[in-house]
Amino acid sequence: MSGSIFKLNGQRTHFPDTWTEKIVRKFFVLTIFLIIAVTAVPTDAEFQIDGYYKNFSTGFDSPLPDEPIIGAVNNRLRLNCTYAPIDVLSFDLSYDFAPRIQDPSLFSEPSIVTATDSLSYRVVDLDSGIYPGKDDPAGSFGLFQNLDRAAIAYGADFADITIGRQAIAWGSARVVNSTDIVAPYAYDQLDTEDRIGVDAIRVQIPIGILGEFDAGYVFGENFAFEKSAFFLRSQLNAVQTDFSVILVGFREHLMTGFDIARGIGGAGFWLEAAYVYANTFDGENGEAENYLRTSVGLDYSFAGRAYGFIEYHFSGAGAGEPENYLDNLSEPAYTDGAVYLLGRHYLAPGLTFQITPLISLGGVLLSNISDPSVFPSLQIEYNFAQDIYISAGGFIGIGKRPETEDEELEFRSEFGGYPTLFFSSFRIYF
């Protein structure tokens, strides 16, 4: 049998010699050729390598009665390499190596809600799990990897063109970005410093001083259209206001949206909204409902030592009553559209205070104002040496706890069904 074996999202898969495989082969051959070609030319090339090591020690207390507290120790070593043989051309490569010691149940199911499976927007990938193997029994130790960046960037006067694995994100909201649906992070994600890389072709064309036209195609598994995305986005500045409009097709759905950000007096204002037409490109015209998501808020800096904001978020994909929260999880908004909040109306005030130049304290209070229930977070951070940080904090789910009837879980409030999470972290950059 002719063909090749690839790792697709952690699965070993054999492909025959189809046009998709030929494209993948040609892309990698072209990449290798370009690297060899530019490195062979005498030039004042720039090469940079940096990265970080992070440790997160966490404990989870389930909202269900008689459930034990479970823990995890997650380590992450990241290396970033950038090579620029000439001014207009650069190569970026980032690799994560992550040993984990945690309760075996956490290897099969996450303990808290995540926004989306960001690794799904990748054509081919390394097997994320190094140890244990697919057929090995689950234990308390695992080794994981992630090739998070692998891109070629060409910068010319007329446009910046990036091909390969890269970060793509939009939106000005502080807590929930309505237009950011490719690889967003959930509110309770601990490590959000680097966006998950996706496989894409992106062209960014400057318009004037602060304007831009941004277009691209994000590839899903095996280049399948129903698993991929495309986007068109335009940004401009007028009357001291940043405006952007966006059109995104993703997994056979269509999203239109806009984002407005400006200053009002000494405060900052933002309004971000998106409307999703479900199953627009599905020939079968499924019965999923369209939905609106929007975030609006204000922020203010107090004398340089404190920063505060307040944001309201509406999610038309959510349910109005707690007993209906779990009914929507099979809808496209949750399976494809990066929606993770179960209700409709949310209010999120936040405050960060610089206690000393090296110690900061911050917190956010995410509340479902229909339940009502709240999910406050608090974190204190100490920069005790150059490029070395330690921090500690937690997320606490407060609200009516879920009940089990006839062996089925029923929510009585959203955040009352969330576990309490406590964590400490250590980060060093090099």
Short description:
The chain is mostly beta strands. Helices cover 7% and strands 52% of the residues. It has three helices and 23 strands.
3D architecture notes:
It is a single chain. The protein is mostly beta strands and 430 residues long. The protein has a single domain (4-429), classed as Beta Barrel (Porin), CATH 2.40.160.10. Helices cover 7% and strands 52% of the residues. The protein contains 3 helices and 23 strands. The chain has helices at 19-39, 105-108, 332-335; strands spanning 4-8, 11-15, 46-61, 70-86, 89-102, 129-131, 141-155, 160-166, 198-207, 211-218, 229-238, 241-250, 253-264, 267-277, 291-302, 306-315, 345-356, 359-368, 373-385, 388-395, 403-405, 408-410, 420-429. The protein has an 18-stranded antiparallel barrel. A two-stranded antiparallel ribbon has the order 1-2. It has a two-stranded antiparallel sheet with strand order 21-22. A hairpin with an 8-residue loop joins strand 3 (46-61) and strand 4. The model is unreliable at 1-17 (pLDDT under 50).
Number of domains: 1
CATH architecture: Beta Barrel
> What's the overall geometry?
globular
- Largest sheet descriptor: 18 strands, antiparallel, barrel
CATH homologous superfamily annotation: Porin
What is the mean predicted local confidence, pLDDT? 88
Calculate Rg over CA atoms. 23 Å
CATH topology: Porin
Instruction: Tell me roughly what share of residues is in helical segments.
Output: under 10%
Distance between the termini: 47 Å
* Strand-pairing-aware structural class: mainly beta
Can you tell me the residue ranges where pLDDT is under 50 for at least 5 consecutive residues?
1-17
CATH class, named: Mainly Beta
Oligomer: single chain
Number of strands: 23
| Number of helical regions | 3
Strand coverage percent:
over 45%
